[in-house]
Amino acid sequence: MATGSVAGIGPLGARSPLAGRADGATVAAVFALALLVVPARLVLKYLPLSLTPANVVSLAAALLWLCAQFTLTLGVAKGRNPVRTALFAYFTAMLATYGFSTWGYMDSDELNLTDHAFVLAIASVGIGLTMCDGVRGFRRLDFVIKTLVVGGAIISVIGAFQFVLHWDLTRFLELPILRYTSEGDSFVLERADLRRVAATTGHPIEFGVTTAMLLPLAVHLATKARMRAEPSLRWWACALLIGLGLMFSVSRSAMLSLGAVGLVLFLGWQARRRLGAAAVAGGFLVVIWVTVPELLGAIFGLFSNLSNDESIQYRTHDYAVAAQEIGRHFWLGRGLGTWYAPKHQIFDNQYILSMVETGLVGTLAFAALFVVAFCTALRARHLSADPGTRDLGLTVAACLVVPLVGSFTFDLLSFATVTGLSFVLVGAAGALLRAVKEDQLAPSQRSGPTIEVTR
Predict the structure, then answer these.
(1) What is the CA radius of gyration of the chain?
(2) Each residue's pLDDT tens digit, 126-143
(3) Torsion, Cα of 371, 376, 378, 379 (10° steps)
(4) How far is it, in rounded angstroms, from Cα 11 to Cα 196?
(5) Cα separation, 360 vs 358, whole angstroms
């Protein structure tokens, strides 16, 4: 193996990003704001497919990533990465399912839906690859994470207005180029005489799970700022707002997701930080109990009577239908997006829905994507000696547990916001590992090129 160097080119033949130039992190930040701030049920007018602004940005990201693979001058990383491989495997599985289902005859409604679902799969993989290969270095990754947290704080404020004042601020976000896909649906539902709010997302469950994924990121930024003697109050304020948004969703899925996140973090934190986190969580619950006592009662009620819960009974009554449908197309499924209401019964379980639509191959590829990203984030934590980087690796890993757990309680891929956020964090795990490995290179290797030629 011969190694050569050319000035200005970074590891694996990729030119180092230039300061002040738009890069993958810029695209990812724009996507994050479009994903979180623009209401999920607003799509662009005049398009043959129902695409949100975030979908358009992620499709553009996929195209830019593909074009960047043909050049060494745009700063996009090249070379192997576990997340990159997992994204390729997931896309291959979706392509196989799409080809298998469209090979024969399909009803026109299902054909249109599977076309639409495949386009969204391209968009999701595109933003994941953009994060993994286009976000170079800790500073740019930090920029994307800060954008996600600020976006999470914004939607939590919107959710607070919906919960406390019953005032829907999403009506002020209706732009002339956008239209609602379902005008009659409300962003506010009711449970136990309490409002369940969705903020800008498609459903309170989605809002709760989204905030459960964003809360650890806000806590990480605040902790990192404190460790570096930088202003941290702004990030603690974001964490407080996101935590309130999670509570206002009044969602069982959100609580389960938060529990899974907390378990991973507690296992990775030192004892002193565990005690501090427990004290902060206890104080937060006391404040909620004093200000909105019925909220804690409603959340406790989600778990106190599970055997008689109508929601759980509804989620399990259709298992026989699912088993019969899975048996018809066991390996590759009946087609992406082809199982929909009101034509078919809803499965409030992404794994069951994936088995029906994409078969065993697609379901395993979906689960493996998050497992690989989870392990990649922990790998980056293991390789780094920097406390802030190690904490980020643990935090991203904890966030990636949420899609794995949440997919048991609702059809995650049917909701645009939480799906987009999940793929951003998958890509973030890959970007973090790349940054850690590049940081371990000798200064001469980082400043000059590293083009490897295998003979």
Answers:
(1) 22
(2) 999 999 999 999 999 999
(3) 140
(4) 49
(5) 7
